[in-house]
Design brief:
The complex is a heterodimer of chains A (247) and B (485). Chain A is built from 13 helices and eight strands. Chain A is of the alpha/beta class. Chain B has 485 residues and is an alpha/beta fold. Chain B has 24 helices and ten strands. In chain B, the strands form two sheets. Chain B has a six-stranded parallel β-sheet, sandwiched between helices. In chain B, strands 8-5-6-9 form a four-stranded mixed β-sheet. Classes of the chains: A alpha/beta (247), B alpha/beta (485). Chains A and B meet through helix 1, helix 2, helix 3, helix 4 and helix 8 of A and helix 1, helix 2, helix 15, helix 17 and helix 18 of B.
Amino acid sequence: MKIGLFIPCFIDAFFPEAGIATLQLLERFDLNVVYPTDQTCCGQPMANSGFETDASGAEALFVRNFEGFDYIVGPSGSCVHHIRHHFTAVEQTPAVREIRSRSYELVEFLHDILEVDAFPWARFPHKVGLHNSCGTLRGLRHANASELREPHFSKPESLLRKVEGLELVTASRPDECCGFGGLFSVVNESVSAKMGSDKVRDFAQAKADYIVSADSSCLMHQHGCAERDTVAIKFIHIAQILNGAVA
Amino acid sequence: MTRGKEGDRPDNAKPEPQPRGASHKGNRPIDQAEAAERFLAAPRHQQQHDTRLWTLRQRRDDQMWAMPEWEEMRSLASAIKEHTLSHLDTYLEMFEANATANGVVVHWVKDAAEHNAIVLDLLQRRGAKTLIKSKSMLTEECGLRADLAKAGVEVVETDLGERIQQLDDEDPSHVVVPAVHKLRTDVAKVFAATIGSDPDNHDPPYLAGAQRDATRPLILNAEAGMTGANFLVAETGAVVVCTNEGNADLCANIPRLHIVSVGIEKLVPRTEDLAIFVRMLSRSALGSPITQYTSHFRGPRQGGEMHVVLVDNGRSERLGMPEFWTSLKCIRCGACMNTCPVYRRSGGLSYGATYSGPIGLIIDPSFNARKYSNLPFASTLNGSCTNVCPVKINIHEQIYAWRKVLVRQHETPFVKRAAMKAAGALFARPAMYRAAVERTNDALANLPRFVIYNGMNAWGKNREMPRPPAETFHQWYARNRGGRR
């Protein structure tokens, strides 16, 4: 199985450890993982801000980089959500449609495609609060949303439960957005930061040692709020835990 | 930073002035972010606001879990509304014919000015100088009170929250709970200044009683009454109004003249359709199974007159917008506001528009794209609004679509346009991009310029920056997996 490894721009620049863990984790399953070195960005920052035409160059480049893979896997729910649901700045050729449907966020790839049933190399004896980004929760449907009358399910939770020693704790408003929102985080700075602070406090009162997520952008924002508010809580990408990170 | 545990504790804390809403500068874009910042700077107000509305959201969830057919009901409600909207001409005429047969006079108006003129004309022809009314977002939309005041008509709002807002000369901040942004002490201050109650007594029953004593004589002596409508039933010509205070019934029944102002999207075809909507409305809005009063007005009271004013005011135009027409399904329950994390932390008045919160973001720009051009950006696109909507409006997708429309129409700031163009160009060129990232070890100094354009200062105001790693993923890959392409 030939996998195209999609490392979003901000993970490349700020959170290489999440990218490395994703690569190493996928390699554990004997997959042929290729990192196309010319990749930049999926186009989401421009498109989410309404500037769809300005996203066309990035999207066209993404298509050139990721043509011909069985699956494209990336450790970022919001970027994969963009590719699957909003990647319309380029002409919708059969190749583009193919790429969009073969793009997976790491958690759903492990859960739905590889159907991984054990992570014997992983041990994480800590209290962990799971933050589902809105892109993964309501966009990619990683888990049931609290607003809908539907049975409980959670793909990231079911993966984390396979990690030895890990204890999940629940925030009082588990589905509340943390307020990152891309450009929103700077244009609507005060509301964004307040949402982030509230989120971090909610996890802290649930006694979480770590906040884990499939989205480094949410974590970057919450981390910034926690540091400023001097809330003692740590942040980690889910790929790192599943790959056997030692804290 | 310490934030109060409970917002409304006037006895053991210094008074906190009530934060006011967005400032209006003619047609210039409303700065929602600025007004929200001032709301956040009043932590007791913000905290109470967030807690109250979150409580409504939780009660709504409880109602949802108590009703196994909830999701089916949402689908039915949506389907009935979509059917009605796509046959609106037929149902409007059916309503007119049936209402007329019931002895109601039906008026058709195209915009706010025409609406206010026809209401004034109805009042003046009967020499009415006082009008009592129940809550109606449509009359807010039309600016009715101001127009009537100019013509010397005294208008008295009879919904408690709406009355508070009227006496404070503020717009409603929420479609269901218009004064939810105020503390009890704010209300005591307003009442003390306007109806002469005790400024130091902020006990809610006392305040409600004082307001009732002051308003009841005005109600009993009013020469005309006005209500809005939650639903119009086409097959019977009935007007349905849901309230918790019974005030609409006073407005409809005490004066000789009852005027109903209603938007043309409020139609449902049949009485039995109400079995869906009445069950969904209050559950979604307040988490209560039903409103205290659900009144069906089918004709004038004995010896009286009943007029229904059917208002378009941009609705037909919106009905013709492929991406936005389903926003007309809205039944004004406010569930999207209660769940919205941005709204709860901004206050409804920060939007500077009749409709605030998520539904406002997608309705307001259709009234004035320039003035409300910032609103669709006051969202994280988290989608909770869409999930709670009882008529399944894809609110967050319409917010996303409005952004594209506003950018196309150049209703976005120049600096943002330039930054996005530059970012788009850089992301399209891998070599340039790579050079930009790796030119310096300090990725922090570089990357955010195009990832989050020129907003570094804004990011850092209340948050720490991410620290740049020793090497990027790209560099690590080259070092560890190089040549294995």
